[in-house]
Every structure is written in structure tokens, then in C-alpha cells.
Design goal:
With 154 residues, this protein is mainly alpha-helical. Helices cover 53% and strands 3% of the residues.
């Protein structure tokens, strides 16, 4: 049988011990730690928020960036390196395209000269002579041959 004083005791929370340095209170529950982000997740977020650096340019000075060789890693330097690499790649590609265009112009000139010479061909004998002579010289081919296509009597 429970008396009124016993019921009061059960409802009353326990007080901290009065002994010096002893803490009998329960500590607050630990806050769950924030999930760790991967570099790819951060990069994806920054990519989807392109104005982040502009919006927080005054606050970014407080960031502690890792040092590399005694120098601070610079986002501008990294971007400049990437642009320089792309520029070098484009220079090589440009030279290739200019060389190809020069070859195309030379080929077009040769074909034009060959076609102008072909206008003077009137007979099959003239055509054979043209193919073995002017066309080989103009197109700079080591050998040229005429093939007769179709029925034998044409």
C-alpha cells in the first residue's frame, strides 16, 4: 500500500547531488552530426548555384584554404591553368585546320586546272592522251588509267 508521501516522492525529480564536483544530472542528448559531403557533391552544388561566389564574396575571405608549397591555392589560378590548357589545345587544332585548308585550296586549284584542260578533249584518243599526260601532271598522281564502262559497242 502506497502512502501519500511515497507517491509524492516518486513524482518529484531527483535533485543533483550536493557533493562537490559530482554531477548526477543526465547530459543533454548529443546532436546528430551533419552528414559529410563529398567533393563531387560540393562541386555539383556549386555548379547549380553559379552566383554563390558573387553573392558571398565578402564572406569568402574567412575561409581557410589549404596551402600548397607555401602558397594559397587560388581559384583564379586554377581557372587560368585550365584556360591555358584549352588555349594550347585550340592553337594546335587551329594549326591543323589551317594546314588542311591549305591542302584543300591546292587540291581545288589542281582540279580546276585539270577541268580546264579537260574541256579541250574532243575524242577518246585525246582523252587517253589527257589522262596519261596533263591529268597526271596537274593532279600529281604517279599513274592514271581510263576505264571503258558499259557495252563494248558504245
Amino acid at each position: 500500500m502506497m502512502t501519500e508521501s511515497m507517491a509524492t516522492l516518486k513524482k518529484t525529480p531527483k535533485k543533483a547531488s550536493s557533493a562537490k564536483g559530482v554531477n548526477t544530472r543526465r547530459s543533454a542528448p548529443k546532436k546528430p552530426s551533419a552528414p559529410r559531403l563529398t567533393g563531387k557533391q560540393v562541386l555539383a552544388w556549386l555548379t547549380s548555384h553559379p552566383t554563390f561566389f558573387e553573392d558571398f564574396k565578402n564572406d569568402l575571405g574567412a575561409l581557410m584554404l589549404p596551402k600548397k608549397g607555401g602558397n594559397i591555392i587560388s581559384l583564379h589560378a586554377a581557372k587560368a591553368d585550365k584556360v591555358t590548357e584549352e588555349n594550347d589545345r585550340l592553337k594546335v587544332r587551329h594549326k591543323q585546320m589551317v594546314a588542311l585548308a591549305s591542302h584543300n585550296v591546292a587540291m581545288a586549284d589542281s582540279l580546276f586546272e585539270a577541268m580546264v584542260s579537260l574541256v579541250g578533249v574532243k575524242t577518246p584518243a585525246d582523252l587517253s592522251k589527257f589522262v596519261q599526260g596533263d591529268m597526271r601532271r596537274v593532279l600529281e598522281v604517279p599513274m592514271a588509267k581510263v576505264y571503258k564502262l558499259g557495252a563494248a559497242d558504245t
